[in-house]
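ok so I'm stuck.
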Amino acid sequence: MDASADPMIRLIDVTKTYGSGSVAVDHLSLDIPRGQVTVLIGPSGCGKTTSLKMINRLIEPTSGHIEVGGVDVLAADPVKLRREIGYVIQNSGLFPHRTVSDNVATVPRLLGWDKSRVRQRVDELLELVGLDPSSYRDRYPQQLSGGQRQRVGVARALAADPPVLLMDEPFGAVDPVQRTRLQQEFRALQDTLQKTVVFVTHDIEEAVRLGDKLAVLKEGGHLAQFDPPAWVLGDPASEFVAAFVGDDRLVTRLEVTPLETQDVEPATHLSSDASAPNVRSTIRVGDTLRRTLQVLMDSPTGEVLVVEGENIVGMVTPGSLHRAVRRSLPAAEPAQESEPDETAEAMHEQ
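replied:
not stuck anymore, here's the structure
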């Protein structure tokens, strides 16, 4: 399988049933864009992890087709397939009796890389995830914090430079402070690497913070909506989606909406020597509207200066922030709903 030729993932009418007759995933069709983070999210029992594991055949689908790079994975050697797809799970899944270096080197060694190439790749990846190789290379997992173990888990998944990365609740077992830091670091890493990522989470804030697109699943493995986060929050496809993302979805929406130059008012009363480094209450073009709101609420004057580079380009007031929020709301593009909603039943089952 040459996933690197086209790492787009396609699930085509995929179903997974078990011997008891229960349906985990029901006729799921989903095109996952290359080079983006697609987040699978939904309530317990909606088939998120099952869908993820069917991509690398840790779970075999009952029917349907799954393609990676245009190749049917069901016709591929499953062992070879898994070596070409990175996989990160909650609690990192590291081998406890192997050093950090040995854990990261697992797949390259299976692929027959020579020792010098393996060592170079290990050190390169540890640096990439923010761990000094000289300090961490020879440690064991039990000598690391939860956040450090997750960084090593990401490094191991990236070791053979796979085009596709599967991540199943990767930050769910760390404390909130480390979780936020790991999310930020992962987003920055993805901006550089541009992998095709399928990410499972139950946390809507994590989903909108990390995802380029959200696949909202409901119980039984039905696709309820597949759209960018801003659309899921601003224009839910059904009452089920609206209830799942929560009544505060418009506040959460601010997390994924950047401040743009059109949202900035002229700063008409600055002193002549004012400059960005000398002004304490500032935000930047591109900061989220959520951060803009937080800084604005802390401002004693109800105004916040906006900078771009080292230059002050204007200010934000409550009025201009309100206009920015209205500008961000969907106006014409319809949400994508895969099937008629069964709202009452779905909400009762939650």
